[in-house]
Amino acid sequence: MRAGGFSALLAASCALLVQPAAAQIAPRPPGTMAPCMRQMSLTAVDAHPDEAVLRVTDWAIPFAGDVRVYGHDVMWRATIRGGATAVVPNATRGTLETSVELHAPGAIEGAEFDPRGGSCTLHAGLRPPAPSDGVEVSRPVVVASDPVPVEPPSCATPYAAAQLVHGGTPQQPPTGFGMTGAVRVAVALDAAGEVVATQVLSSPSMVLGGRALSAVRASTFTPEIFRCVAVPDGFVYVATFAG
């Protein structure tokens, strides 16, 4: 074989190796689905049971919408019209969190958020602050009011975040290709914990993004539990590639 022909064959083989198959990259979900693929959290404020911080990472649209804040047997309403942005430590570089501080007339247990421009509701039960939360910033204060009586939760664990039960193993790239790093994938889960949509939030390369999506499809999740009921919600999956 001529040298030129061999070089062309080698280049074509390398291109096939490093390019993802078309089926590996999922189509971008509709814009109204994007907010549904984020995981919201609600963190306690020390010595202030009537205050809590509502947090969402990787928010990509104006942070606005209606929020319902729950006590044990009462619900209050409020409207979010913007949030503060903070860096999330110990996460993939560039990961940001958007948040507001909620105030209510009584002790807060959970919250539901209907993002403006979205087609879903995000849920979160109150939890303690964690090192994975965004750094402290000055946040807008959102005051909830208009109390409405509600039935108190009737189960032992009324709130539980969606969880990864079994993570699919990401296919590592061939050694020597220098493709390393973390891929973050936004996942929309239904009330059974089934994956209904995915979107790559950040990736060092399209190849790794495609392999992370395959790992998500091979994973199993438990759904969000809100006031004893399984609900659709979002989850952010992270796949790490060592190269």
How would you describe this structure to a colleague?
It is a single chain. The chain is mainly β and 243 residues long. The chain has a domain at 34-152. It is 12% helix and 42% strand. The strands form 4 sheets. Strands 1, 2, 3, 4, 5, 6, 7, 8, 9 and 10 form a 10-stranded mixed sheet that branches. The longest helix has 16 residues, at 3-18. It is globular and about 60 Å long. Mean pLDDT is 85; it is low at 1-30.
Helix content: 10-25%
Categorize the overall geometry.
Answer: globular
How would you state the average pLDDT, rounded? 85
Structural class: mainly beta
Order of helices and strands: HEEEEEEEEEEEEEEHEEEE
**How does the major sheet shape up?**
10 strands, mixed
For the CA atoms, what is the radius of gyration?
A: 21 Å
Mind sketching the topology for me?
Elements: H1 3-18, E1 40-45, E2 48-57, E3 65-70, E4 74-80, E5 84-87, E6 96-103, E7 110-115, E8 122-127, E9 141-143, E10 145-149, E11 159-160, E12 163-166, E13 181-189, E14 195-202, H2 206-217, E15 220-222, E16 224-226, E17 229-231, E18 233-241
Parallel strand pairs: 1-8, 6-9
Antiparallel strand pairs: 1-2, 2-6, 3-4, 3-7, 4-10, 5-6, 7-8, 11-16, 12-15, 13-14, 13-18, 16-17
